[in-house]
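Hey, quick one: can you model this chain's 3D structure?
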Amino acid sequence: MPNVFLFDLDMTLVDSSALAHLRRSQMWDAVRQNMNLIRPFPAQGRVAPHELPALLRADGQAVGIVTSSPEWYATAVLQQFRIPYDVLISYGDTENHKPDPAPIQEALRRLGIAASRDSLYIGDDVGDVEAAYHAGLASVAVRWGPTSIFELSSSAPDIFVSKASTLLRRDRIGGRGYIGEALTSNWPFHSHWGSILHCDDEPVVYALGRYFTASDPRHATSALSAAVLSLKNNDSQAQVLGECVGRAVDLFDWKPDCIIPVPMKPSQERNRFKELLESAADHFDEDIEVELNGLKTVKEVEGYKQMNALERAEAIKGAFDTDYTWGGAKILLLDDVYTTGETTRECVRILNANGAGEVRVMAIAKDQRVFARKTCSACGRSMKIRENHATHVKFWGCSGYPITASTRKTSNPIGSGHLVRTLRRLVARACHHELKARKAQRWPQKARIVPRRAWTGTLRIHAGHLPGRHGSDSCIGGRRWSRGEHAMSQPRMLEHPLDAFLAPPQQAQGGTRNTTRIKLALQKFCLTQVVS
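Sure thing. Here's the predicted structure for all 532 residues.
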């Protein structure tokens, strides 16, 4: 039974979607002026999400808030909605940020509690799920956040909830996992909306749990993954997997007329779904028919597993056929693992072309992304998967981007925001001539300091690219360019000794005025540390 509840703040406890663009762009002055736009979520079940911390603390549970927002902002929101807590971890409290586990680990340290699966981290996106995994906590994702439930299905949490009140039933939280994982592991199981993973909507695709590949550390302890692999070779797990399928079908608010498995290859003599579906039939309505030969394979595709999604889509065309005219029947198509979905899409196309009504897909398990930990080559922080908001291309980006003075604690007596703004302006001017000389290499006439904890005598400048064909976000700590090279490109780093900027006027690239201004600025702010 869990006794520690750590919450993300934005889009988990409160609806700050009206400020999403300002927060993403780090326009904190504008955010401060529009705090009134933050709203509570409507009640999810018996309670609203922002009421959970108070109710849990009243029940004697430890409650923490772990957010990537600056402390002043988090404190203001918590006060505005009267959200109590035992510990608050904001952006400035750790060097690394979600999906790195450091913020969650810091919260546990301050609470004096060791990490365990009895502690929960509740959030709304993939970064929250991954951070909880690396920290050794159970992850909970909420349906009312902005992240698509289909996107989350590839990095699925341990528990997926649609109602805030679900978290108040502490005695049942351990049984709120996915039906396939619970039954194959002999865990307690309590059905709810999140018992089945929702993977896609064109066509509708369900999964009974998560499939972890052998390269994923979670594979070793996943009973469902082991059962799926066993099914490919023998029927030793057919009965328990059949129970999973049958009970899942019985939970649907949509009832199929017929269940059809994805067809075997012509070279395969054993139909791995035969005994499984015989077992499943004991658990769903007798009116639902099972047709093992509803589809057939007419073309065997070699090397299919080694192909990417586009190659699979092309290779699988025309691989299946059916001997039936389905007369508008509602069909549930059964597969073992849902990866790119190209196989099931082709099966659905054939069924629809031969008179089927609505066709939905059920997979025993959904293939999961491996939670690999990558580090930024520039600053050493953890990388996270980001999305370019112009092209929607996903790429690895630094968890410390974008960084401004207002997001980190500092004891500098002079306004830290003013310091960073001044340094940005001075560095951009000082680098003007060098960047202009490199214009042939398509570099912009802008630069920004990459924040570092210690001033080592080297000024590190981040330079992006001139506009190109694709939108791009930088992969390391630096400013976001509205346009640039492909999203996966690596921005360049320039390093300059301080002496190059403090040299005599005739040697300085920026001329007398720029050199003097930078020297005065460095003296004025006593730069022994770069404030980020």
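One thing worth noting: Residues 297 and 365 are 22 Å apart (CA to CA).
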